[in-house]
Amino acid sequence: MANLASNPWSFISTDPAVATITGGTGLTLNADGTVSITTTGALTFNTSGVEPAIGFTVVGAANAAYNGFYYNIIGVSGASAFTMRPQFAIPAGTAQSGGGTLAQCLYRAYVRVEDISWQATSTGTGVTSGALLLVDRSGNTIWQSAIGSTATFGQLNRGKVFWINGFTPITIPSNSIVLVTVD
Q: Do residues 171 and 136 lie in contact, with contact meaning Cβ atoms separated by under 8 Å?
């Protein structure tokens, strides 16, 4: 489970809570400014130890007007239908959209990140392939990296990031860990 209680923060492959948004009509703007979001499968997110207003990030929607940070959720963990309020204004009359990903934002505020390190944790199978994708709460890419062959124990990639506005992991390959040093 994600560790944000000590420095460095740590994240593993099971920490991202993500679901694919239904194609075509998975994002619908409601008259009150909220958005109805339907996913193709259950979105099971962390409700333990999370600040009262859980936040979510939409990335990759067919209509970019829907991409960004959402809060004020109506729906439960393990469901596939939610009503959320975007942090930004979506113009009235915006057409339905679909596609993309709905992901839980694990840290919602600005934070100064001194260092991010992506490391293989297994001496056996290691990280055989996969992509690492970390975005801020608005869906802007913080870090994206991929590995195409097997990497065993040790550092895969490292970077200096500095100020970011929230932290939403989208994908973390199995047998690896992301360490985030905050200042």
A: no
